[in-house]
Amino acid sequence: MAVRLDEPTIGSMWTNARARLKDGKEADHEKALCVYLNSTIGVLSMLGSFKRMGLLFRLESTETDLLGLPVPDFVKIDGALEGLAAAFDELGECELSPLPESGNCSVRRAIDRAVCEALDISEELIHRIRSHLVREPSITGKRYQIEEGQLPLL
Question: Do the beta carbons of residue 14 and residue 39 sit within 8 Å?
Fold first, then answer.
Protein backbone atom coordinates (compact mmCIF):
# COMPACT_ATOMS: atom_id res chain seq x y z
CA MET A 1 0.00 0.00 0.00
CA ALA A 2 2.90 2.37 0.68
CA VAL A 3 6.48 2.63 -0.51
CA ARG A 4 9.34 5.00 0.24
CA LEU A 5 11.13 6.44 -2.77
CA ASP A 6 13.64 9.25 -3.04
CA GLU A 7 11.85 11.07 -5.83
CA PRO A 8 8.23 12.09 -6.50
CA THR A 9 6.41 9.20 -8.12
CA ILE A 10 2.88 8.31 -9.17
CA GLY A 11 1.63 4.78 -8.54
CA SER A 12 -1.72 3.19 -9.19
CA MET A 13 -1.54 0.54 -6.46
CA TRP A 14 0.45 2.33 -3.76
CA THR A 15 1.38 5.71 -2.41
CA ASN A 16 4.83 7.18 -1.88
CA ALA A 17 5.11 7.85 1.86
CA ARG A 18 6.55 11.36 2.23
CA ALA A 19 6.99 13.51 5.32
CA ARG A 20 7.06 17.28 5.03
CA LEU A 21 8.48 18.01 8.45
CA LYS A 22 11.36 20.17 9.56
CA ASP A 23 12.58 18.12 12.53
CA GLY A 24 15.56 16.44 10.87
CA LYS A 25 13.86 13.03 11.16
CA GLU A 26 11.87 13.12 7.94
CA ALA A 27 13.39 9.82 6.78
CA ASP A 28 12.37 8.07 10.01
CA HIS A 29 8.84 9.51 9.74
CA GLU A 30 8.57 8.24 6.16
CA LYS A 31 9.83 4.81 7.16
CA ALA A 32 7.42 4.60 10.10
CA LEU A 33 4.51 5.73 7.92
CA CYS A 34 5.38 3.16 5.27
CA VAL A 35 5.48 0.32 7.81
CA TYR A 36 2.23 1.46 9.43
CA LEU A 37 0.34 1.78 6.12
CA ASN A 38 1.46 -1.71 5.06
CA SER A 39 0.31 -3.23 8.35
CA THR A 40 -3.09 -4.80 8.91
CA ILE A 41 -4.18 -1.86 11.05
CA GLY A 42 -2.98 0.59 8.37
CA VAL A 43 -4.90 -1.20 5.63
CA LEU A 44 -7.96 -1.26 7.89
CA SER A 45 -7.55 2.48 8.43
CA MET A 46 -7.57 3.04 4.68
CA LEU A 47 -10.64 0.84 4.23
CA GLY A 48 -12.50 2.87 6.81
CA SER A 49 -11.34 6.29 5.66
CA PHE A 50 -11.60 6.55 1.90
CA LYS A 51 -14.92 7.83 0.60
CA ARG A 52 -15.04 6.15 -2.81
CA MET A 53 -14.90 2.48 -2.03
CA GLY A 54 -14.85 -0.23 -4.56
CA LEU A 55 -12.57 -3.19 -4.60
CA LEU A 56 -9.51 -2.32 -2.55
CA PHE A 57 -7.21 -3.32 -5.38
CA ARG A 58 -9.04 -0.71 -7.48
CA LEU A 59 -9.36 1.80 -4.67
CA GLU A 60 -9.67 5.36 -5.88
CA SER A 61 -8.07 7.82 -3.52
CA THR A 62 -7.09 11.40 -3.96
CA GLU A 63 -4.28 13.36 -2.37
CA THR A 64 -6.94 14.84 -0.08
CA ASP A 65 -7.98 11.33 0.99
CA LEU A 66 -4.38 10.41 1.76
CA LEU A 67 -3.69 13.66 3.64
CA GLY A 68 -6.83 13.08 5.74
CA LEU A 69 -5.94 9.51 6.62
CA PRO A 70 -5.67 9.17 10.40
CA VAL A 71 -2.28 7.88 11.52
CA PRO A 72 -0.72 7.77 14.97
CA ASP A 73 1.68 10.51 16.02
CA PHE A 74 4.75 8.30 16.18
CA VAL A 75 6.77 10.95 18.02
CA LYS A 76 4.34 11.10 20.94
CA ILE A 77 4.43 7.32 21.47
CA ASP A 78 7.63 6.44 23.29
CA GLY A 79 9.95 4.52 20.95
CA ALA A 80 7.41 4.13 18.14
CA LEU A 81 9.23 6.27 15.57
CA GLU A 82 12.55 4.52 16.13
CA GLY A 83 10.99 1.04 16.31
CA LEU A 84 9.01 1.42 13.09
CA ALA A 85 11.95 3.01 11.26
CA ALA A 86 14.11 0.04 12.34
CA ALA A 87 11.42 -2.35 11.09
CA PHE A 88 11.50 -0.57 7.72
CA ASP A 89 15.30 -0.90 7.59
CA GLU A 90 14.95 -4.63 8.26
CA LEU A 91 11.94 -5.37 6.04
CA GLY A 92 11.90 -2.56 3.47
CA GLU A 93 13.43 -4.60 0.66
CA CYS A 94 11.31 -7.72 1.31
CA GLU A 95 8.52 -8.70 -1.05
CA LEU A 96 4.96 -8.52 0.25
CA SER A 97 2.31 -11.00 -0.83
CA PRO A 98 -0.93 -9.57 -2.21
CA LEU A 99 -3.47 -8.61 0.47
CA PRO A 100 -5.71 -11.69 0.01
CA GLU A 101 -2.64 -13.81 0.80
CA SER A 102 -1.48 -11.71 3.76
CA GLY A 103 -2.50 -14.40 6.25
CA ASN A 104 0.38 -16.53 4.95
CA CYS A 105 2.91 -13.74 4.35
CA SER A 106 5.78 -13.80 6.85
CA VAL A 107 6.77 -10.22 5.92
CA ARG A 108 3.27 -8.87 6.64
CA ARG A 109 3.24 -10.77 9.95
CA ALA A 110 6.63 -9.21 10.82
CA ILE A 111 5.27 -5.76 9.91
CA ASP A 112 2.24 -6.37 12.12
CA ARG A 113 4.48 -7.49 15.00
CA ALA A 114 6.52 -4.28 14.70
CA VAL A 115 3.37 -2.13 14.66
CA CYS A 116 1.87 -4.02 17.61
CA GLU A 117 5.05 -3.54 19.61
CA ALA A 118 5.42 0.14 18.69
CA LEU A 119 1.78 1.04 19.35
CA ASP A 120 1.12 -1.41 22.20
CA ILE A 121 -1.60 -3.32 20.34
CA SER A 122 -2.43 -6.95 21.04
CA GLU A 123 -0.95 -9.26 18.39
CA GLU A 124 -3.88 -11.64 18.93
CA LEU A 125 -6.34 -8.89 18.02
CA ILE A 126 -4.38 -8.00 14.87
CA HIS A 127 -4.23 -11.70 13.93
CA ARG A 128 -8.04 -11.90 14.17
CA ILE A 129 -8.47 -8.68 12.18
CA ARG A 130 -6.09 -10.01 9.50
CA SER A 131 -8.04 -13.30 9.29
CA HIS A 132 -11.21 -11.32 8.53
CA LEU A 133 -9.47 -8.80 6.29
CA VAL A 134 -8.14 -11.47 3.93
CA ARG A 135 -11.75 -12.46 3.24
CA GLU A 136 -13.05 -8.89 2.92
CA PRO A 137 -15.05 -8.59 -0.35
CA SER A 138 -13.33 -5.29 -1.26
CA ILE A 139 -10.04 -7.20 -1.21
CA THR A 140 -11.03 -10.55 -2.68
CA GLY A 141 -13.76 -9.45 -5.08
CA LYS A 142 -15.87 -12.33 -3.66
CA ARG A 143 -18.66 -12.63 -1.09
CA TYR A 144 -17.55 -12.78 2.54
CA GLN A 145 -17.40 -16.35 3.82
CA ILE A 146 -17.31 -17.32 7.48
CA GLU A 147 -15.19 -20.41 7.91
CA GLU A 148 -16.05 -23.17 10.36
CA GLY A 149 -14.31 -22.64 13.71
CA GLN A 150 -13.43 -19.02 12.85
CA LEU A 151 -12.93 -16.73 15.85
CA PRO A 152 -15.26 -13.75 16.12
CA LEU A 153 -13.60 -10.40 15.49
CA LEU A 154 -14.24 -8.99 18.96
Answer: no
- Spatial neighbors of 106 by CB under 8 A, at least 6 apart, are none
Question: Helices 80-91 and 26-37, interaxial angle, to 10°?
Answer: 70
Q: For every residue of the chain, which 3-state class applies, written as one string?
A: CEECCCCCCCCCCCEECCCCCCCCCHHHHHHHHHHHHCCHHHHHHHHHHCCCCCCHHHCCCCHHHHHCCCCCCCCCCCCHHHHHHHHHHHHCCCCCCCHHHHHHCHHHHHHHHHHHHHHCCCHHHHHHHHHHHCCCHHHHCCCCCCCCCCCCCC
pTM: 0.76
Q: Are 31 and 88 in contact (CB under 8 A)?
A: yes
Amino acid at 102: S
> pLDDT per residue over 11-63, tens digit each?
555 555 556 666 667 889 889 988 998 899 988 887 776 655 554 544 555 66
**Are the C-beta atoms of 115 and 39 separated by less than 8 Å?**
yes
